[in-house]
Amino acid sequence: LLSLPPVELGFKYFEMFPQDKEPLWTNPCEYYRHKDLWPVNKTCDGLPDFIVVGPQKTGTTALYSFLSQHPSILSNKPSPQTYEEIQFFNSHNYFRGLDWYLDFFPQREKPNRTLLFEKSANYFDSEVVPKRIATLLPRVKIIVLLMNPAKRALSWFHHMRYHNDPTALNSTFREVVTASGDAPSKLKNLRNRCLQPGLYSQHLVRWLDYFPSKQIHIVHSDELKNDPVQVMDSLQKFLNVQPHRNYAQHLRYDPKKGFYCSVMSDGQTKCLGQSKGHKYPAMDAESERYLRLYYRKHNINLSKLLASFDSELPEWLKYELKQAD
Ligand code: A3P
């Protein structure tokens, strides 16, 4: 039997099968032969039961914080680079492998009761993420948050300014969203990153290619903002988590912050940091008109798609559909 030395053989293999260069991690516990090879010190219950996938600026941090309060729900440990988000499935971190991902999850306190989760807000609109998640975690539950995509774009633009992005600081919102093909590449790039996550129907269809709709739960961001207790009630039912937590006792509206915040054991409220829910000017009329047209077709498609989920049309979408008539 003739063969090359191992490293050369590896190079030869990828020369012959370039499509295999990117790994696609499967769950070693899903197949008995792989499970037999899985070292004894590794468990099969260290991966998440549900994932909050975003998109960015839809209230993902508030939802993450409310979920983390639940006595039977444990979030991932923070990442030194990306804080509460692991950002495994959408980035170079994926190539660090399964052990790297597993290290972020704590041990379940009560193995049959505790649920593990992570939230990475960039997962929602990534081309590769649904396939990667479905391959590793075919039964994981997916949580998506939706709000008016034009308002999401404005919030994202101000988030970029808050974080001193030079292009955002040197441009108005209108200049960013209306940037044309011959605009400087940095402006075009900012525009794409600002608007693209809001093409909800396009992204949801991709998730539906890999997950049945009953495995996906939609949270409407306006409801999360105005009535988080109700949102947490239906989310707990979807997750089938015990015991049922009465969030009315643990969340309180803070008039100064203008949002619901967590009630601490001393009765004080603890709100999210300054970068969440800060004040900025309302959208100018021209950007509003432009974005209404830009998202029109996608919003119509979204209204049809939402019928396949157990989800009512949110008020913003009913309003946008009326404008489109
Ligand atoms: P703004 O800062 O534009 O108001 P994300 O955490 O996904 O980045 O989303 C941030 C948005 O969450 C904020 O956007 C804010 O409107 C919204 N939000 C919803 N509930 C909130 C809460 N309880 N506290 C703070 N922000 C909340």
Can you put this structure into words, describing what you see?
With 325 residues, this protein is α/β, with parallel strands linked by helices. It is 41% helix and 11% strand. The protein has a 5-stranded parallel β-sheet. The longest helix is centred in the C-terminal third of the chain and has 21 residues, at 285-305. The N and C termini lie far apart (72 Å). It binds adenosine-3'-5'-diphosphate. Adenosine-3'-5'-diphosphate binds at residues 56-62, 121, 155, 224-225, 259-260, 272, 276-278.
Pick out its properties.
3-stranded antiparallel β-sheet; 14 helices; single chain; 11% strand; 325 residues; binds adenosine-3'-5'-diphosphate; 5-stranded parallel β-sheet; alpha/beta
**Class by alpha and beta content:** alpha/beta
Bound molecules: adenosine-3'-5'-diphosphate
Write down the overall mean pLDDT. 96
Order of helices and strands: HHEHEHEHEHHHHHEHHEEEHH
Q: The biggest beta sheet, please?
A: 5 strands, parallel
- Count all strands and give the number: 8
**Residue fraction in strands:** 5-15%
Ends: how far apart? 72 Å
Helix content: 40-55%
- Arrangement of strands in the largest sheet: 2-3-1-4-5
Give the overall shape: globular
Unreliable runs: none
Query: How many individual helices?
Result: 14
For the CA atoms, what is the radius of gyration?
22 Å
Topology:
Elements: H1 6-16, H2 32-37, E1 50-54, H3 60-68, E2 73-75, H4 98-102, E3 115-119, H5 129-136, E4 141-146, H6 149-162, H7 166-169, H8 173-177, H9 185-195, H10 200-210, E5 216-220, H11 221-226, H12 228-239, E6 251-254, E7 259-263, E8 269-270, H13 285-305, H14 315-324
Parallel strand pairs: 1-3, 1-4, 2-3, 4-5
Antiparallel strand pairs: 6-7, 7-8
